[in-house]
Amino acid sequence: MAKAHIGTSGWSYDHWVGPFYPEDLPSDQRLGHYAERLATAEINNAFYQLPTAETLEHWRSAVPADFVFAAKASRYITHMKKLKDPGDTVPPFLERMAALGRQLGPVLFQLPPRWHQNTERLASFLETLERLEPGRRWVFELRDHSWLTLATCELLTQHNAAFCIYELDGFVTEPTVTADFVYIRLHGPDAAYQGRYDGAALDAWAERIRDWLRRDLDVYCYFDNDEAGHAVQNALALEERIAAQ
């Protein structure tokens, strides 16, 4: 049966103390507190610096066995190398994230703004991913709008890689499905990473997600509007709406 995985992008925010985390909760216990309420999280700091194996093992031990981590790939792969030489750049990332074991779910590649569509390079990258780790769920968030074409979507579909549906700074992609799962990132209804989604917006996302579940598609949805703890409150509210139907 298809499952909805609803969570946030990151979890250890100092400004969530009060809105979500108790004042007296040590920072190294935040993930455990989070995992009592939500069953998935996106590791977004791996984009900036690869966590140590010890850190990943600590995170794995802090959550239930059915908790799922999505991982955002290093910016070295996506922003500096722009998908070049994946046989050299991707294995160190995957080898490190393997410390999460079976709890590692989808891997997200966020392509940079102002890097225009290059389907030839994406095709080569996807072929390498399939060789490196067959069966892994791969996701691509396409920040430059030149990528948002039928050709890109067809290429992702050929490799069962997900088009990341996202909302950012007033722009919302089409709810395009290119894989046997769906991946959503909601960066905020106002300016980037700000604002709180209202009930009507959450109802609309809940209906879309229920439709995908009926089509036997697993769904991963991460809120990134971390301002004032809005992300975690929105995630909890969306999860409730999905479960209520």
Describe the SSE topology.
Layout: E1 4-9, H1 30-35, E2 40-43, H2 53-61, E3 68-72, H3 75-80, H4 86-97, E4 104-111, H5 119-132, E5 138-142, H6 150-158, E6 162-168, E7 171-172, E8 181-186, H7 199-214, E9 218-223, H8 230-243
Parallel strand pairs: 1-2, 1-9, 2-3, 3-4, 4-5, 5-6, 6-8, 8-9
Antiparallel strand pairs: 6-7
Pfam family, one: DUF72
Organism: Thiohalocapsa halophila
InterPro entries: DUF72 (IPR002763), UPF0759_sf (IPR036520)
Short description:
The protein is α/β, with parallel strands linked by helices. It is built from eight helices and nine strands. It has an eight-stranded parallel barrel with strand order 1-2-3-4-5-6-8-9.
Note down, in words, how this protein is organized.
InterPro entries: DUF72 (IPR002763), UPF0759_sf (IPR036520). Pfam families: DUF72. This is DUF72 domain-containing protein. The structure is a single chain. The chain has an eight-stranded parallel β-barrel. The protein is built from eight helices and nine strands. With 245 residues, it is an alpha/beta fold. Helices cover 35% and strands 20% of the residues. The model has no long low-confidence stretch (mean pLDDT 97). Helix 4 crosses helix 5, helix 5 packs parallel to helix 6 and helix 7 crosses helix 8.
